């Protein structure tokens, strides 16, 4: 007996509902090929009864099945567009390599048009649609977004009229330009790693299938394209100032204020470079986060786009720059020990020790010599400690952090690039209190309570939830009064981005602050100590045998080899 002879009566009687099969095709496959067509009307009758009654496939109550990926909706080209669709199909082969440069976008474009039977998106009835004209107009205005409109060629639809091959090329050329615009608008045109080894930004590159689906389904194409630009208020303010500068016809109108000495170069070029660097940031900075602006020497605690705390900072010198990256704050440390970086040990302290054997003791520094002859220097907690009383940790490959300092006089200076890479905070107790409140630390840590912890013993305060931190390099921004502020390019990053935007990457001769061999050797040395031990030997880079209580905050505890 054929399977259909068993199944059909049961379906008609409702004893085997539609949901017994995950899809119609699975039910049809159950039948013999010659009788499958007989089941379709019965399944159609059963389908309304079972619509929306539970997971497809008849899973038991309380069990949710993983849904199968939804197949793309098939679109048939209009009869008058079939010749264009045929040409698109032909061009989607090897000729597409000459239209779309990016391999990932090219593959996505092929799949996109194959799923819609190569029906055009921007052309109907052999003519450009309103969406076509809106897309072309938006691409031609790309200069106003801080981009270069010449990067997004638009087809001459008038010349293509009546020619299916040229209309198909116009369709694909426009789609390729729109995909390029979306990528440039969202993630920029410059590779951050080629600007400096100390720039570790990860631009949020949009996925090509998402771009294609967004544009194809958008009623407002101009709005959909604009949404690929950074959503941050500071970017939008720079974009408005860019348009104002260009309309003013001057690179130095009254609306610009230069701070901290003469900032070289064109104001427009600096605005463009800063807009580019905003594209490197995550689109979602977090509901509450810390924003450190290195060339402005400032730190802000942000709630959304509103600053709830602002203070001055000291940043790295030009030859030991503070790195640019995003991370998450994990804990706050009171009364930190300072483990002097090897560059200072061998470049400064050992020569001084050779001249005066008692100089480091008078400075409150401890010197230890390992069996292999290497020397290490540390400074115990206290008022003279180089890290001050508080340290805010966000473990990162550059081994930098935010901390207090006994050298308060530096905060009165306009330019404050004096550190070895870490960032010193003018009001660390207030800053730490904000971080601990946002991070949900156990206890009400007010500035007064934090100050009450000051002493000689290290204290660690973990966060319940990590707080995002974004260390940025924005030397052009719009101040609260609406003035465009341009700060000096202290590390030369602005000039490098400006040159890259014009098609030429400058040669970079800069030492990386990232994970040094010293840090790696220290990690290897400490990893040999059993984690069950109540104390861990802090070998540091020189195997000195310092001891400190085992820390729950990772293999380094309070030791940091990158400087202060």
Structural account:
It is a single chain. Mean pLDDT is 81; it is low at 1-72 and 516-563. This protein folds into three domains: 1-70, no CATH class; 79-226, no CATH class; 251-337 and 380-514, L,D-transpeptidase catalytic domain-like. The chain has an eight-stranded mixed beta barrel. Strands 3-17-16 form a three-stranded mixed beta sheet. It has helices at residues 3-12, 24-30, 36-50, 82-91, 103-115, 130-140, 157-160, 164-187, 208-217, 221-226, 233-248, 267-278, 342-355, 359-362, 428-438, 447-452, 493-501, 517-526, and strands spanning 123-124, 127-128, 256-258, 288-293, 298-303, 306-316, 325-334, 338-339, 366-369, 375-379, 390-393, 402-403, 417-419, 423-425, 459-472, 476-478, 484-486, 535-538, 546-549. The longest helix has 24 residues, at 164-187. A hairpin with a 5-residue loop joins strand 9 (366-369) and strand 10 (375-379). Helix content is 34%, strand content 16%. With 564 residues, it is of the alpha+beta class.
């Amino acid at each position: 007996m054929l399977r259909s002879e068993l199944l059909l009566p049961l379906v008609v009687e409702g004893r085997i509902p539609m949901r017994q099969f995950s899809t119609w095709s699975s039910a049809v496959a159950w039948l013999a090929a010659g009788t499958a067509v007989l089941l379709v009307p019965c399944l159609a009758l059963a389908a309304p009864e079972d619509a929306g009654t539970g997971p497809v496939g008849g899973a038991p109550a309380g069990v949710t099945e993983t849904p199968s990926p939804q197949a793309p909706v098939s679109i048939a080209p209009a009869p008058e567009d079939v010749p264009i669709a045929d040409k698109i199909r032909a061009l989607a082969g090897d000729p597409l390599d000459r239209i779309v440069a990016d391999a990932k976008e090219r593959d996505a474009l092929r799949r996109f048009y194959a799923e819609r039977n190569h029906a055009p998106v921007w052309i109907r009835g052999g003519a450009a649609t309103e969406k076509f004209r809106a897309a072309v107009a938006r691409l031609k205005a790309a200069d106003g977004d801080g981009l270069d409109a010449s990067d997004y060629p638009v087809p001459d639809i008038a010349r293509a009229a009546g020619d299916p091959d040229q209309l198909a090329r116009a369709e694909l050329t426009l789609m390729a330009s729109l995909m390029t615009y979306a990528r440039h608008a969202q993630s920029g045109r410059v590779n951050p790693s080629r600007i400096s080894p100390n720039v570790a930004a990860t631009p949020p590159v949009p996925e090509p299938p998402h771009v294609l689906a967004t544009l194809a389904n958008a009623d407002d194409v101009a709005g959909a394209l604009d949404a690929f630009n950074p959503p941050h208020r500071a970017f939008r303010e720079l974009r408005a100032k860019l348009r104002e500068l260009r309309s003013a016809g001057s690179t130095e109108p009254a609306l610009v204020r230069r701070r901290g000495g003469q900032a070289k170069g064109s104001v427009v070029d600096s605005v463009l470079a800063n807009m580019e660097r905003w594209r490197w940031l995550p689109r979602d900075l977090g509901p509450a986060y810390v924003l450190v602006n290195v060339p402005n020497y400032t730190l802000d605690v942000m709630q959304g786009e509103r600053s709830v705390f602002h203070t001055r900072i000291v940043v790295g010198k030009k030859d030991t720059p503070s790195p640019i990256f995003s991370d998450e704050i994990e804990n706050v440390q009171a009364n930190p020990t300072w483990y002097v970086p090897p560059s200072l040990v061998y470049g400064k302290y050992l020569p001084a020790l050779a001249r005066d054997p008692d100089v480091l003791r008078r400075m409150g520094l401890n010197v230890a010599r390992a069996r292999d002859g290497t020397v290490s220097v540390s400074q115990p907690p206290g008022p003279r400690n180089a890290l001050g009383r508080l340290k805010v940790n966000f473990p990162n490959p550059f081994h930098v952090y935010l901390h207090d300092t006994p050298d308060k006089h530096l905060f009165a200076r306009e330019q404050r690039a004096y550190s070895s890479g870490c960032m010193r905070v003018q009001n660390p107790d207030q800053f730490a209190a904000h971080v601990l409140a946002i991070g949900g630390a156990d206890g009400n840590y007010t500035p007064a309570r934090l100050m009450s912890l000051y002493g000689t013993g290290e204290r660690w305060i973990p966060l319940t939830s990590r707080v995002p931190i974004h260390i940025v390099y924005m030397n052009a921004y719009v101040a609260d009064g609406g003035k465009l502020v341009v700060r000096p390019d202290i590390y030369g990053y602005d000039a490098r981005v400006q040159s890259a935007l014009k098609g030429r990457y400058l040669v970079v001769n800069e030492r990386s602050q990232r994970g040094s061999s010293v840090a790696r050797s220290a990690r290897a040395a400490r990893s040999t100590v059993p984690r069950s031990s109540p104390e861990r030997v802090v070998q540091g880079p020189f195997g000195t045998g310092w001891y400190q209580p085992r820390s729950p905050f990772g293999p380094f505890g309070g030791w940091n080899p990158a400087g202060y």
